[in-house]
Amino acid sequence: MAGRARNQDWLAARRTEVAADHILDAAERLYTDRDPASIGMNEIATAAGCSRATLYRYFESRDALRTAYVHRETRRLGREIMRKIDGVEDTHDRLITGITATLRMVRDNPALAAWFASTRPPIGGEMAGQSAVITALAAAFLRSLGPDDPATVERRARWVVRVITSLLMFPGHDETDERAMLEEFVIPIVTPASARR
Q: Which residue range or ranges hold the HTH tetR-type domain (predicted)?
């Protein structure tokens, strides 16, 4: 009987993950339609079809929910970016392709783009600057460009996050302008010493 009880709950962890994802999906729908800073836990619970108590069981606060959403989307974007740069051998091209793909994917996703609208509070920039997950993924991307001192890679990763955040909040004239800025001001600094031309 005890073995049967244990077996009946083998999906418990998966149910928790599915429930949390369902809540984050509901939050994403709200972020698409409205300013993310204005959305409260009541609205997210209603959109998810659950009670506030249930919502708080999965996310202790609005900040925790926002962080979970940003981290989920960061990981998803990170996987897509790595697919886009797979096969790009030249370090400079890999860096430009990775950054421009990031900008394009965030801008093309209404829920993510809302976090960086210049007419709204800068919560996207705040989240990007505080997120260890975003910095870690940026550092992993930079390490893929070539070997370098770990402390240097981490500083450069934080710098790349700031550059991307800046371009999301204050875009260049067009993609060509942004690419030129990246080539002139970012590539010379962020490229590992072993790959500099």
A: 17-77
Q: What structural domains does the chain harbor? A: 4-195 (1.10.357.10)
Integer CA distances (angstroms), 30 to 44, 45, 179, in order: 8, 11, 32
| Residues 6+ away with beta carbon under 8 Å from 104 | 175
Q: 36: burial class by Cβ within 10 Å (0-12, 13-18, 19+)?
A: buried
| pLDDT tens track for 42-57 | 999 999 999 999 999 9
> Given a cut of 90, is residue 94 above it in pLDDT?
yes
pTM of the full structure: 0.85
Helix (H) or strand (E) holding 186: none
Contacts of 133 (CB under 8 A, 6+ apart): 70, 71, 74, 75
b/e burial code for range 122-146 (CB count within 10 A of at least 16 → b): bbbbebbeebeebbebbbebbbebe
Helix 62-85 and helix 91-108: axis angle, to 10°? 140
Task: Assess contact for 84 and 97: CB atoms under 8 A.
Answer: yes
